[in-house]
Amino acid sequence: MRAAVCYTGPVPRRRVAPLAAASLIAASIPAGADVVVGRDARTAVALAIYSGQDLAIVRESRSMSLPEGDGTVRFEEVAARLDPRTVTLSAADDPQSLAVLEQSYLNDLSSPQTLLERWVGRGVELVETDTRLRTRVTQATLLSTDGGNTFRIGDRLAVGHPGWLMLPPTGDEVFTRPTLRWRLANRGASQRTLDVSYATGGLSWTADYVLVLAADEAHADLTAWATLTNASGASWDDATIVLVSGDVHRAGAPGFPVAARMQAADAAAAPLSPPAPEGFAETYRYAFERHTSFAENETKQLPLLEARGLTVSKRYTLRGNARWFRQPMPEPDRRVPVTVLVDVANTAANHLGRDLPAGAVRVFQSDASGARQLIGEDRIRQTARDETAALELGSTADIVATRVQTDWRQVAVEPFQAESAYVVTLRNDKSAPVTVTVRDRIDGTWQVLESSLPARKEDAQTLAFDVAVPAGGEAVLRYRVRVGS
Q1: Which phi-psi region, left, alpha or beta, contains residue 161 (left: φ > 0; alpha: ψ -120 to 50)?
Q2: Which three-class secondary structure state does DSSP give residue 98?
């Protein structure tokens, strides 16, 4: 496109960007020699999308008529957030007969700064309109966009301008859509199929789980969907989708070159069913058999997992605070919440035993009318086979807990030592007995001096007690602890 450009508004601080450098390279290539290949020339496209890393590897094939000898080819409608450092191009039919001499990424309208930088040192028009809609045009030279626009008007310098800034035609082509451009040496046939791959931001996915808890609270059904988001600035039709679950180290954002396998499955014949996780390098990949389209700014969900009749267990925890052991407790409200957790064993015997990607788990249960109600949600990290996923649902209303610090005294100043005593009272309003685990975090060195129930040292900083509370009754825990620096 060659036309005058109108720009209004302030310009961000100028920076050295690969986009501007690519535009300068492309400006030296005769535009009339370009073979323009649009999205309609695609013959295949594959997306490898990484979980939680704002990263995808795009690989696509496009067919075209390419004259023999040296020339330029450009692919339009590529991802706006692609990393130019990761672009690779090859011929699918006869790789040895095609050589890439240079490549560039162009997107002049990706930001006002990228566009204005091309007019630095050139003539522009400053347009002002008064309250009577009378227009005045002033000829100026754009000198800089660093920290704002600076112009030369005659023998004077002007900083900023309240009106419009018109950019007259220069003969250079302005790229209004993200474009990849290559200078190629074709020594093969004129009808070619070219494969391009690159890393891009703006594509990501997360796992979203739904756990439906049965009435007995000992069994559940689990389903999962992969939620994909596309903010890359491009759309893909009939694409192969591969999801990668795991933490891939990156040398620097954005992106790095990773191959994405192109698949040629029959989109009409293959059902869109949950894929099985496949170990790949140090990650897991989920390859969907059926092709799907993925539009720009679309959020799409694909089935990831379905498991029925899981055995789960509910437990209750009362957590303490480390500072309670080193100073008197000042809290006037001595009630403390009792947290509800549900454990899901990721084992083959429990109808799982597979990679569980990181994501959000929403837990539902049917009420007396049969309607499903949300009873809690939590996030899980990537959970390997034979691990247990612990889901925190919130606080219970049927178990009331109070904690009272009955004694606190400092034993020594240097090194610091203190002793404190506690009474924890638990009241159970449920119709069934429960066990509540009282779990205290204690920093430094510590020792349980006395306790009414067996104490358990779970790790260097965790003291735990298991308190059995009868249905409709109470249980009391008493203990004394010495802490030191």
Answers
A1: beta
A2: strand
CA angle 297-299-305, nearest 5°?
155
Centroid of chain to Cα 196: 24
Q: What's the CA gap between 57 and 49, in Å, rounded?
A: 7
Model confidence pTM above 0.85: no
- Show me where the domains of the chain are located: 5-43+59-200, 397-485
Looking only at the bridges linking them, the beta strands covering 150-153 and 339-345 are unpaired
pLDDT digits (tens, 9 = 90+) for 272-318: 467 777 777 777 788 888 899 999 999 999 999 999 999 999 999 99
**217 in Cβ contact with 310 (< 8 Å):** no
DSSP 8-state code for residue 270: S
Contact in structure between 296 and 235 (CB atoms under 8 Å) = yes
Task: Name the nearest CA neighbour of 354 among 285, 287, 300, 303.
Answer: 285
CATH class of the domain at 397-485: mainly beta
Burial class (CB in 10 A: 0-12, 13-18, 19+), 439: middle
Task: Give the CA distances from residue 433 to residues 23, 359, 398, in Å, rounded to whole numbers and listed in that order.
Answer: 72, 33, 11
Environment class of residue 208 by beta-carbon count within 10 Å: exposed (0-12), middle (13-18) or buried (19+)?
Answer: middle
Q: What is the pLDDT of residue 3?
A: 45
Picking from 117, 162, 121, 114, the residue whose alpha carbon sits closest to that of residue 138 is 162
Cβ count near 96 (within 10 Å)? 8
Tokens matching residue 2: 């060659």
Q: Which helix (H) or strand (E) holds 18?
A: helix 18-27
What distance lies between CA 332 and its chain's CA centroid? 42
Separation CA 413–CA 393 (nearest Å): 42
CA 9 vs. chain centroid, Å, equals 32
Is the model's pLDDT at 111 over the cut of 70? no
Tens digit of each residue's pLDDT (9 = 90 or more) over 7-64: 444 333 333 333 333 333 333 434 446 898 988 899 999 999 999 889 999 999 999 9
At 109, list the tokens.
């309208």
Interacting residues of 37 by C-beta distance below 8 A, sequence separation 6+: 62, 64, 73, 74, 75, 76, 194
